[in-house]
Write a structure and sequence with these properties.
With about 140 residues, the chain is an alpha+beta fold. The protein has a domain of about 80 residues. Helices cover about 35% and strands about 10% of the residues. It has a 3-stranded antiparallel beta sheet with strand order 3-4-5, with no helix packed on it. The chain has a two-stranded parallel ribbon with strand order 1-2. A hairpin with a 6-residue loop joins β4 and β5. It is globular and about 55 Å long. The two termini are about 30 Å apart. The structure holds zinc ion. The site of zinc ion (ZN) has 8 residues, from loops. The site of zinc ion has 8 residues, from loops.
Length: about 140
C-alpha cells in the first residue's frame, strides 16, 4: 500500500526496502536495523514502527522526511527506484546503444544500477519528477 511512497523515497536517495510480509517484517526490520513505515494499524504500537496517518503519497513523503529528520540525507539521483541499490556513475561511451539516440547526444552524465542495469540520466522526466517532489516537500532539493 505504500509502494508509491517507497519509490519516492528512493528517488530522493533514501534507503527503502519494500515488503508485503505482514508480521514477518518486524523480525527482518530488526535484523537490518530498519524503521518500519506502515499503514497497517495492527503494527501501530510495535517497536521501531512508524504509523503513517496520511493517505496521499505527497503528504506521506512530507511526514516521513520531517519526522525522521531526513532532510540531510536527501541525495536525488543516487538510488535505483526499482531495486533500492545505490547507482554507479557510468561513462557516456558505455551507454551508447543502451539509451535513446537523442538522449545520448544531449546528456553527458549517466548512472547505472548494479543490480538491474537500468540506466539513469537527468532528462526531462527526471526534472519533472524532481519538480513534483519539491512541491510535495515544499522545499528545493535538486542540485541544478
Ligand atoms: Zn535497479
Amino acid at each position: 500500500m505504500l509502494g508509491k511512497l517507497c519509490k519516492l523515497l528512493r528517488m530522493i536517495g533514501v534507503d527503502c526496502a519494500y515488503s508485503n510480509e505482514g508480521m514477518a517484517i518486524l523480525v527482518n526490520a530488526r535484523k537490518e536495523g530498519r524503521v518500519i513505515l506502515t499503514c497497517n494499524s495492527r503494527l501501530r504500537h510495535r517497536e521501531n514502527v512508524f504509523f503513517i496517518e496520511a493517505s496521499q503519497p505527497a503528504s506521506q513523503l512530507h511526514e516521513v522526511v520531517n519526522t525522521h529528520g531526513l532532510w540531510d540525507e536527501i541525495m536525488p539521483f543516487t538510488r535505483c527506484v526499482i531495486c533500492n541499490e545505490k547507482l554507479e556513475s557510468v561513462a557516456r561511451q558505455d551507454v551508447k546503444g543502451k539509451v535513446p539516440f537523442y538522449t545520448y547526444n544531449n546528456f553527458n552524465e549517466y548512472a547505472r544500477c548494479p543490480h538491474c542495469s537500468r540506466i539513469y540520466w537527468k532528462g526531462s522526466h527526471y526534472k519533472k519528477m524532481m519538480q513534483e517532489i519539491e512541491e510535495m516537500l515544499d522545499r528545493k532539493i535538486g542540485d541544478s
